[in-house]
Specification:
- This protein is mainly β.
- The chain has one domain: Maltoporin, Chain A (Beta Barrel), CATH 2.40.170.20.
- It is 8% helix and 47% strand.
- It contains nine helices and 34 strands.
- The strands form four sheets. The chain has a 25-stranded mixed beta sheet that branches. It has a five-stranded mixed beta sheet with strand order 1-6-7-4-5. Strands 2-3 form a two-stranded antiparallel sheet.
- A hairpin with a 4-residue loop joins strand 22 and strand 23.
- The chain starts with a helix and ends with a strand.
């Protein structure tokens, strides 16, 4: 009922103003000149994407929506080849908040901004075999596509400019700011297989505030059904009856596992406002999203010791049904003080991830066990306060020197809230497994409520020294309350060889402070581990460095990651609408933080004793372990064609290559040489090969009269996974085609129909040895384009 009421409220907010504003806006649609915008990586407002000294992709709202993608992160994945957003299934919380990253690095090596202000990351820690295991990332899908004016992707290190996390690059989401007009959209679709049904109602509208400002409201309601590509379960499901198979075996639904996308219901509301006050401008933006996800765990057969037949006579599939809530609010004032431009702001964000279990039980409670559980909650909150001054000074050769400096303060808090007792307690029934099946609840000794803060001071210089040469420099010092200070710098330059051809280069150092999630997260949960004889359940403990287990095993404190990055490239543009950029880069990272491989009791008596006290079968930790080098190449070619009476054609080809190698493994010495167990080949393969090294897109958009046709081909290259038995599986590269057609029926009404993955392409099937009795036919982690096959959809839009 609560969800239904919220859905009605969202629809009311989006739909109500339509009648009021439709008539006033009827004649205001005009063709606009190309917008020159200030982009990330530069303080000069005259810069465009191709005029900067570092590579920047600018993706418009139209481009995000062209292929009908309903999730912000997925739309970005198909627009920017260096952006990774793989699909995973049966990976606990990562089914609800999926990892996303740039240039093949960890998800937490990419900084996300909204309107140029730092956005908080998710409270969830990725634990189960996904790319970026042990990391947390900002949940891009918490920001509705309907709220986005454009997305800027800076493919370059920028810690000196924006602070911690900006090692791989920066994603800046710019919110809509139109003072009037809006749109309402309804999208429906499903996969070729007939599942994964989606209904999405979304839109936005702007309100003029006395010609002194505007406020834009955006919202969405999104309901998505699950997909399932599991194979049939051939295993016996019931105990033998007088030595013979149980008759129920003949009628059992053998598609018992759910291997595919989770189902979810998502509500999102955002606003973006500005208002002229005195010589300056007040601004504010923010929003919230509330998402309930349902994904399957591992099926428990009727004869399984983790089942209670009095409750589930035919076995059961535990459902992880977390509630994910993201809230953010920002406010500030931009104003002039003489020749200075000032910007003061405060931003607050919070991510809450509440683990709930349905269709589960606590086997140790016997037949009296409840079947749904509150397994605990993760909360990450972040507050950023900043003040910046900037102005132009006269400089050498009659040029202007842009000088900006500022100070920032950030406070991060992290909480692990214990689940209800039944989600972790041992009821003592028949020596059965304790805790809620599917995800064991957080125990009271896992509960934490910690915080840390840091202060940063920075200065940036930028100068167009001559008509052909521009340069920029940045320096930032940050001091943290928990592990010390860091200084990073950046130098960049661009030189125009001709009016059409320019070269550019950057050099920078970067850093990433250990996330509060990595510092304080701890939990014991049931994971399925392949020890060479099939998947077996284990009580797997993730222990922070403050835990008794970490102290007993002599695991040291976390330190920041540090990087050194270089890039060099060229840009070619001409008046015919053709542009080409080629950028090569190298990123060296020292002391990368990983979630270690597991220690087990057989490793040593000390490990056995520590695990026995903690009640776990294995233990893993967050540690500084690896030095790595990532090298890559990004190429973007774009061209606009005027076809005369046959309309206009926009074409773009983009290619990204990245390769990560491990330079050194520097593990903390524990227990006389046991440290080699902390980073095994599974983790090495996950870090270096689980993301395609080659990716690319070719998109064509043709406008003819009232019809727009969009055709795109995306390539996801070869990648590799490895299991705990040391078996490596290589999955070949695949091409994915997307086609859509949009017809502008009237000035206000448009219809779009299309197909994603037009030719119903699937990834390679796993080796039979990894399929677990043929159930997991496709890789259930790190699948670059998923394993759902084709999807078709229709969309109705009304603009006012």
């Amino acid at each position: 009922m609560k969800k239904t009421m919220i859905s009605i409220a969202v629809a009311a907010v989006v739909l109500a103003p339509a009648a009021v504003y439709a008539q006033d806006n009827e004649n205001t649609a005009q063709a606009k000149a190309p917008e020159r915008i200030q982009v990330i990586g530069s303080r000069l407002s005259v810069r465009t994407a191709t005029e900067g000294s570092a590579p920047v992709d600018i993706i418009s709202a139209e481009d995000l929506q062209a292929a009908g993608f309903t999730e912000t992160a997925k739309a970005l994945q198909y627009a920017v080849p260096s952006f990774n957003f793989p699909t995973s299934s049966i990976t606990d919380g990562s089914d609800a908040v999926r990892p996303a990253s740039l240039r093949g690095l960890s998800p937490d090596h990419t900084l996300v901004l909204v309107n140029g202000k730092r956005r908080h990351s998710s409270s969830l820690v990725h634990l189960n075999g996904t790319t970026g295991r042990g990391s947390s990332n900002a949940d891009l899908n918490a920001i509705p596509i309907s709220a986005i004016k454009r997305i800027e992707v800076l493919r370059d290190g920028a810690s000196a400019q924006y602070g911690s996390d900006a090692i791989a690059g920066v994603i800046n989401i710019v919110l809509k700011d139109n003072p009037e007009g809006g749109d309402i959209n309804l999208s429906v679709g499903q996969t070729y297989e007939g599942d994964g049904e989606q209904v999405k109602l979304y839109g936005s509208f702007g309100v003029n505030l006395n010609d002194r400002g505007a406020i834009v409201f955006s919202g969405e309601y999104h309901d998505k059904g699950r997909t399932n590509r599991a194979g049939l379960d051939p295993r016996p499901q019931y105990p033998l009856v007088n030595g013979q198979p149980d008759p129920r075996e003949a009628t059992f639904d053998r598609k018992s596992h759910h291997v595919g996308d989770a189902e979810f219901e998502n509500i999102g509301l955002f606003f973006n406002a500005n208002y002229q006050v005195g010589s300056g401008e007040l601004y504010a933006f923010g929003g919230f999203s509330e998402r309930t996800t349902k994904s399957g765990a591992f099926f428990r057969r009727a004869l399984d010791a983790r089942n209670i037949v009095e409750i589930y006579p035919d076995g059961y599939l535990p459902l992880l049904a977390p509630d994910t809530n993201d809230t953010s609010i920002a406010a500030g004032y931009r104003f002039d003080v003489g020749s200075w431009f000032a910007d003061a702001s405060i931003v607050y964000g919070e991510s809450e991830f509440n683990y709930r279990l349905e269709n589960s039980l606590n086997a140790s409670m016997g037949p009296s066990s409840q079947t749904s559980f509150d397994a605990g909650t993760l909360v990450h909150d972040e507050m950023n306060v900043s003040f910046e001054l900037a102005r132009l000074f006269k400089f050498y050769n009659y040029s202007d020197l842009s000088v900006a400096f500022g100070v920032s303060y950030r406070d991060n808090g992290y909480q692990v809230k214990a689940g209800e007792p039944a989600s972790y307690e041992n009821g003592g029934y028949d020596n059965r497994a304790a805790g809620s099946q599917g995800f064991t609840g957080f125990r009271p000794d896992s509960a934490v409520n910690e915080s840390r803060n840091n202060t940063g001071v920075y200065v940036e210089l930028e100068n167009q020294l001559t008509e052909k040469f521009q340069w920029a420099a940045a320096l930032r010092f940050e001091d943290y309350s928990d592990f010390g200070s860091n200084t990073s710098w950046k130098l960049s330059g661009r030189y125009a060889l001709t009016d059409e051809l320019a070269i550019r280069a950057t050099a920078n150092t970067g850093f990433r402070a250990p996330g509060v999630q990595q510092l304080y997260f701890t939990n014991i949960s049931t994971l399925f581990v392949d020890r060479g004889n099939g998947l077996v359940p284990e009580q797997s403990g993730t222990f922070n460095n403050l835990s008794n287990v970490a102290r007993e095993l002599e695991v040291g404190a976390l330190q920041p990651e540090e990087s050194q990055s270089f890039s060099v490239g060229m840009v070619w543009t001409n008046d015919s609408g053709l542009s080409l950029s080629v950028d090569a880069y190298q990123i060296k990272i020292d002391d990368r933080i990983i979630l270690s491989s597991s220690l087990v009791p057989g490793d040593s008596p000390a490990v056995a004793d520590a695990l026995a006290i903690a009640g776990a079968d294995n233990a893993r930790f967050f540690i500084n372990a690896v030095d790595s080098t990532t090298r890559g190449l990004d190429i973007v070619l774009a061209k606009q064609y005027d076809l005369g009476e046959f309309g206009r054609l926009r074409a773009q080809a983009a290619y990204g290559y990245n390769e990560t190698k491990v330079d050194a493994v520097n593990l903390p010495p524990i227990l006389g040489g046991l440290e080699h167990k902390l980073f095994d080949n599974v983790e090495r393969t996950r870090m270096t090969r689980s993301v395609p090294r080659n990716s690319g897109t070719l998109s064509l958009t043709h406008d003819y009269s009232k019809l727009q046709t969009h055709l795109a081909f995306s390539y996801f290259g070869e990648y590799m996974l490895e299991n705990n038995a040391g078996v490596q599986t290589t999955f070949s590269g695949k091409w994915i085609a997307d086609l859509s057609m949009r017809y502008q029926a009237t000035e206000a009404i448009a219809v779009r129909v299309g197909a994603q993955n037009l030719f119903d392409t699937y990834p390679d099937k796993q080796d039979p040895a990894n399929q677990f009795n043929g159930i997991f036919m496709y890789p259930n982690t790190n699948a670059p384009f998923g394993f759902n096959g084709g999807y078709y959809y229709a969309e109705l839009s009304y603009r006012f």
